[in-house]
Amino acid sequence: MLQIKHLRVSINQKEILKDFNLEVKAGEVHAIMGPNGTGKSTLASVIAGRDIFEVTEGEILYKGKNLLDLPPETRAREGIFLGFQYPVEIPGVSMANFMKTAVNEIRKYKGLEPIGGADFLKLMEEKKKLVEIQSKLNNRSVNEGFSGGEKKKNEIFQMAMLNPTLSILDETDSGLDIDALRIVANGVNKLRTKDNATVVITHYQRLLDYIVPDFVHVMYDGKIVKSGDKHLAIELEEKGYDWIKQELEANASI
Amino acid sequence: MENDKNNIIQELTQGDYKYGFVTDIETETSPIGLSEDTVRYISAKKNEPEFMLEFRLKAYRHWLTLTEPTWAHLHHPPIDYQNIIFYAAPKKQQTLNSLDEVDPELLKTFNKLGISLEEQKLFSGVAVDAVVDSISVKTTFKETLSEKGIIFCSYSEAVKEHPDLVKKYMGSVVPYTDNFFAALNSAVFSDGSFCYIPPGVRCPIELSTYFRINAANSGQFERTLIIADEGSYVSYMEGCTAPMRDENQLHAAIVEIIAHDNAEVKYSTVQNWYPGNKNGDGGIYNFVTKRGFCKGHNSKISWTQVETGSAITWKYPSLILKGDNSVGEFYSVAVTNNYQQADTGTKMIHLGKNTKSTVISKGISAGKSNNSYRGLIKVSKNAINSRNYTQCDSLLLGDKCGAHTFPYIETNNKSSIVEHEATTSKISEDQLFYCLQRGIDNESAISLIVNGYAKEVLNKLPMEFAVEAQKLLSISLEGSVG
Question: Does the CB of B442 have a partner CB in chain A at under 8 Å?
Answer without folding.
Answer: yes
